[in-house]
Write a structure and sequence with these properties.
Layout: H1 40-80, E1 111-112, E2 118-130, H2 138-148, H3 154-161, E3 168-174, H4 176-185, E4 190-199, H5 207-210, E5 212-213, E6 219-221, H6 222-226, H7 228-233, E7 238-239, H8 244-260, E8 265-272, E9 278-284, H9 297-300, H10 316-325, E10 334-336, E11 341-343, E12 346-348, E13 357-359, H11 360-365, H12 369-379, H13 381-390, H14 417-424, H15 433-444, E14 448-449, E15 467-468, H16 472-488, E16 502-511, E17 517-530, E18 537-544, H17 558-561, H18 563-576, H19 586-593, H20 641-644
Parallel strand pairs: 1-7
Antiparallel strand pairs: 1-2, 2-3, 2-4, 5-6, 8-9, 8-18, 10-13, 11-12, 14-15, 16-17, 17-18
Helix pairs in contact: 2-3, 8-18, 10-12, 10-16, 12-14
Length: 675
């Protein structure tokens, strides 16, 4: 058998035998070449691929160029020529009209308290507006929006959308959930713009002080209005002197007193006695600052800065300071408080008449209207008005509240003998509680009057400069008298162990809407400083038209209604403000604050008294001017002797003089009066 392949079945022809022409010879083994054929479709396909490849290379080149351009721009903007921040605009803190404000990109600046607690903040929200020209059926659009925004008026929205204007506000300050739901409606012509909503995280805390903003985030009341331009142009938080801790305690005690005595309202102020900064300002009733629309007029009313009231006997602090500072009277002088003083068909009376000639310490601790009136007559109308003007009691307090009110004061032409006397004990003049608190600071801090402020100091700020309005010795004497009022007078319920409180009570009958005074309806107040030997803070609380309870034994005076609340405030805020009660050297402190009673006149001086009254008994007679009081010059004394009543008699002076402070005579029955 042969191993040769069959004819035409060679490895080069695996598909079988190929027919052979007649006479054709069988090929012999030799080198073999293969022919490749390229068809037209292949050529077209290759051309398309080459073109696509060229396009991809071109696109890649464009992207590479863009990337290089962006990289170069970023390098220039961040490394080579970085942009400098725009200078911050800081304007002077002056009140501006809301229309003058320009919103910052981040919204209105926050307001914080003295410790950084947020009191007011603007949160981003959305405003919904529409282009009605893009809508087919505006009624259907209004109906659909009503389902998402139940607060809108469907008929009003449909009417405004039908107006064919290019821009129509639909709703302001909508929530993110509502924004998403409106987007899901897919209605053409509806769009959103970023806005801000003012929120007050602490609700009713300092609501009347903070005020409010309108829908466009412009201030309309309180601090928000006063600092409107500053808040809308400078994003730095505005820091107030208000201390949320003090504010909360003060509100708690004032609200509790208002509730206990079913009063119309009440107010409270805590002021730093070293600089005039307000740490707390409360007006009850108040409201949630986030819900201004539902607040009543009474709730929005700031009783501390806007309300004016006859202050009552707290004003005797002014009368005593004025008379002492001008050397019209001295502690050893006595005044006839044995009977009421007639003024026309009325009488000036005392709430608790003592029927004897009183020295100034007794007049103050028993709150004698008669004694204050007699002192005022010696001072005179012109000096009284000048004093009130000097202490700011005839002008608006310069505090950062647009609502701060002017006092109600009689004009000079109507300031007769009756006004002179009634003003001496806080009637016939109406002041804001802020006036009373701020002037009390001047009385206890050494005689320096500060401008009350709601602003906290910035780091590095110099201490505020006050204006001296009385001698330091006058302030020293007044602090001792105020301490006497608490230790052994009408202010005993304001005492707090360890804090050496000094104070003055005040009770004034309320004026009716038709003139005259309401019987048994009082404005009861209490102003105190602590610790009185080195005052740090002044606290003032007033209760408006409170009702007596069994605990007050039928009384509605400041000593019964307002003094306990002030005592509670002092006990709670003292440790918080780093003023700890002192139980060491108590005797030495008491001795330093003591006033000897009766107060002895220095040798050689004839004091005012029954034998030298200084003014006629019928001092209400306008046609009979008072005599000028006669005093002999007081001798020089060693430092500190005056406080203890120790005097060194000059040669030839009498060894002692009769003291008439306890001279007693019968007196007629008296009616109740403010004290």
């Amino acid at each position: 058998m042969s191993d040769a392949p069959p004819p035409d079945m060679t490895p080069n022809n695996p598909w079988g035998p190929r027919p052979r022409a007649s006479g054709q010879r069988r090929p012999t083994a030799s080198p073999h070449g293969e022919t490749v054929r390229v068809t037209s479709p292949d050529l077209r396909r290759r051309a398309v691929m080459e073109k696509s490849r060229a396009r991809l290379v071109a696109v890649a080149g464009v992207f590479l160029l863009l990337f290089l351009a962006i990289a170069a721009k970023l390098a220039d903007a961040t490394l080579i020529n970085p942009m400098k921040p725009a200078p911050r605009v800081v304007e002077q803190f002056v009140p501006e009209a809301p229309a003058a404000a320009v919103a910052t990109p981040s919204g209105r600046a926050s307001i914080i308290d003295a410790n950084g607690q947020i009191l007011a903040v603007s949160l981003p929200v959305a405003d919904l507006y529409a282009d009605p020209r893009q809508m087919m059926d505006t009624n259907a659009v209004a109906a659909a929006l009503k389902k998402v925004l139940p607060q809108i008026d469907e008929a009003d929205i449909a009417r405004r959308l039908a107006s064919a204007k290019a821009f129509v506000y639909v709703a302001r300050q909508i929530s993110p959930a509502q924004e998403l739901a409106i987007n899901n409606l897919g209605i053409p012509g509806l769009s959103f713009q970023t806005a801000y909503e003012r929120r007050y995280p602490l609700g009713d805390t300092a609501a009347q002080v903070l005020g409010a903003v309108d829908i466009d985030d412009n201030g309309i009341a309180g601090v928000e209005k006063y600092f409107n331009t500053r808040l809308n142009t400078d994003p730095t938080p505005l820091r107030l002197s208000i201390d949320v801790r003090v504010q909360t305690i003060l509100r708690d005690e004032v609200a509790n007193a208002v509730k206990t005595f079913t009063a119309v309202g009440g107010c409270g102020i805590v002021e730093d006695a070293t600089n005039g900064r307000i740490l707390g300002m409360v007006s009850i009733p108040d409201y949630d600052a986030n819900d201004l629309a539902t607040a009543t007029d009474a709730e929005k009313f700031n009783r501390c800065a806007t309300g004016t009231y006859e202050p009552g006997s707290v004003f005797k602090l002014q009368t005593a300071s004025m008379a002492l500072d001008d050397n019209v009277i001295h502690l050893w002088d006595s005044f006839n408080t044995t009977h009421p003083i007639p003024i026309g068909r009325f009488h000036i009376t005392d709430f608790e008449p003592k029927h004897y000639w009183m020295q100034l310490p007794d007049i103050m601790r028993f709150s004698s209207n008669i004694g204050a009136s007699r002192i005022a007559v010696l001072v005179g109308k012109d000096r009284q008005r000048d004093w009130l003007q000097k202490l700011g009691l005839m002008s608006r307090e310069p505090i950062q509240l647009p609502e701060a009110a002017l006092p109600q004061v009689q004009p000079d032409s109507a300031w007769g003998r009756a006004t002179l006397m009634t003003v001496s004990f806080g009637n016939g003049i109406a002041e804001t509680p802020l006036h009373i608190a701020n002037t009390a600071v001047a009385i206890v801090d050494g005689g320096v009057l500060y401008k009350p402020t709601l602003l906290a100091p910035n780091p590095g700020d110099p201490p505020p400069e006050g204006v001296r309005v009385m001698q330091e010795s006058t302030s020293d004497t007044m602090r001792k008298i105020m301490r006497l009022i608490v230790v052994d007078g009408t202010g005993s319920f304001g005492e707090v162990p360890g804090y050496f409180v000094g104070a003055k009570t005040g009770t004034a009958q309320k004026v009716s809407a038709h003139g005259g005074y309401k019987k048994h309806t009082n404005y009861s107040s209490f102003v105190a400083a602590f610790p009185i030997y080195a005052p740090r803070y002044v606290v003032y609380i007033a209760i408006d038209s409170g009702h007596a309870t069994a605990a007050t034994h039928g009384f509605t005076t400041g000593g019964w209604m307002a003094a306990p609340a002030v005592g509670h405030v002092i006990a709670r805020i003292g440790p918080m403000l780093n003023v700890m009660p002192r139980f060491d050297n108590v005797e030495a402190i008491n001795q330093e604050l003591a006033i000897p009673m009766p107060y002895p006149a220095p040798p050689g001086v004839i004091p005012l008294g029954p034998n030298n009254p200084g003014e006629p008994d019928d001092i209400a007679d306008a046609d009979r001017p008072a005599r000028k009081p006669v005093h002999r010059a007081a001798p020089r004394v060693a430092a500190g002797d005056a406080a203890q009543g120790r005097w060194t008699a000059p040669e030839g002076a009498a060894a002692s003089l009769r003291h008439d402070a306890m001279y007693r005579v019968p007196a007629p029955a008296t009616a109740d009066a403010a004290r």
